[in-house]
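tool=predict chain=A
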Amino acid sequence: MYLMFLVNNHPYAVKTSYIFEIVRIERVTALPHTAPYILGVTKIRDTIYSVMDLRIRFDTENRSPTKPAVAIVLTYRGAKVCMVVDDVIAVVDIDITRARNPAVTSHHIGGIVQVNGMNVALLSIECLFKD
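tool=predict ok
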């Protein structure tokens, strides 16, 4: 199963096994000397999380809104991070054997698959956490 979401009107999907929760973020505290796509940190139920804006990460937008609304909290090898997205679409069953290689050379994309007539990019969470 995969969670589909939008980043700058482009559909993406990530395995639901990586998802801890979906939250609304009201406040982000900026941190100095971080990558441009790291907005800062936020506190959710007494836990501090890094906040990554995928619009900036994927070079689709030069700036981020001051109050990110929707964040997907991902977990990978014990680490958790909030991934800011424009909107969450649905949970879908995707047959990854039908995925094709992306036309662009992005190591964050593991392939492209058709879902309900849309080309959906499958995120490689390993690469997001590695970089």
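The beta strands are 2-7, 10-15, 19-24, 38-44, 47-53, 70-76, 79-85, 87-92, 109-115, 118-123. The first strand starts at residue 2 and ends at 7.
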